[in-house]
Amino acid sequence: MLLVTCPYCGPRPEIEFRCGGEAHIARPAEPSKLSDKEWAEFLFVRTNAKGVFAERWNHAHGCQRWFNALRDTASDRFIQTYKVGEKRPDRTPGQERL
Amino acid sequence: MLKTSHAAHRDLSLPIEQPVTRPDTKAQVVIRPLPAQARFSLRLNEADLEGAQTAAGVTLDIPINTRSGSAERSSIRLGPNEWLLTGPYDDAEVIASQIDAALSGRFYTLVDVSHRNVGITVSGRRAAEVLNSGCPLDLAEAAFPTGMATRTLMGKAEIVLMRLDDTPTYQVECWRSFSTYVRDYLIEAAREFEPSIA
Ligand SMILES: [Zn+2]
Predict the structure, then answer these.
(1) A16 located within any domain
(2) Which pLDDT tens digit goes with each residue over B89-132?
(3) Rounded CA separation A91/A66 (Å)
(4) Position A30 in a domain
(5) Residues of chain B with pLDDT under 70
(6) Cβ A63–B65 below 8 Å, yes or no?
(7) Interface pTM, i.e. ipTM
(8) Per-residue CA distances from B77 to A10, B57, B63, B80, B131 (Å)
(9) Chain A residue with minimal CA distance to B65?
(10) Where residue A72 sits, what CATH number does that domain have?
(11) Pfam families from the entry (chain A) (predicted)?
C-alpha cells in the first residue's frame, strides 16, 4: 500500500487521504477587476505537470488537516510533504525526504 | 437488532443481546460492546494549550494520536486542535462544566457527541489481525503500542481506534449509524479464529 507522510501523523495508508488539486494558487485580491478570461483561468486552469507537482492533500480519515505535498506525477512517488503556509521545498525526483 | 435511529438516546449502548465471545478464557478474540459513555468533541487552537495543559481531570497536552487518562476519564488527541474526551455517562454535565472552567477566556468549542458514537472492544491474542481485516494501519507493537489512538478506517466506515492495554485490548469507536456494519465486519473477521461466534 502507498504510504503518505502526514506532517502531523507520520506515514499513513493512502486510503485515509483525499487529494485537493494543485497547491499554491493564490486567490486574486480583487476579483471584480479581473476579466472573465482571467477569472476563468483562476478557477479552472491548472498545471498538467509531468514530474514534480505541488498538491494540496487532506488527511480526511486521520487528523483531517490539509497539507501540501510534492509528488512526482510520472512515478506517483511522494517526494516531500509540508504544512500549509510553508514554502514549497526545492526538490527533484530522487530527493525524497519522508 | 441494533438501534441505529438518530433519535436514539445517548444512554443507549450498542444493544447486542449477548457478548460476542465464548465464555471461557481461551478465546483468541473477544468482541464486546461497551456501555454508554459521555463523549465530547473539543476543538481548541494549539496556541491556547499554554496554561491549559489539563482540563476536567485529563491531560490535553499530549502528542497527536495518543490517549491519556484512565478507563474512567480519558482524552484522545485526534489532531493538532482536536480532542475526543470520554467519561462515565452520568458525568457529562460535570465534565462540560469543568472544561468550561479550565478553558475560560479561550476560544474553543465543546460538543456533546455521547449519542453519536458507539464503543466496541476487541481484545485477545488475535485482536490486531481481526482489526487488520478492515483497518490498514500497522498495528504491530512498535508502531501502535498501548496508548496510541487515532481516527482511521474500518472497511468503509470511519472509526477512532485506540489501544487500551497490553492484552492487547483495542477500542473501536464508530458512529451509531455505522455500528451494525462495523460490528458485523468484526464478527465476520473474528470467525476465522473463533468459529463458534454466531
Ligand atoms: Zn494526519
Answers:
(1) yes
(2) 999 999 999 999 999 999 999 999 999 999 999 999 999 999 99
(3) 21
(4) yes
(5) 1-26, 198
(6) yes
(7) 0.88
(8) 15, 15, 7, 7, 21
(9) A9
(10) 3.30.2270.10
(11) SoxD
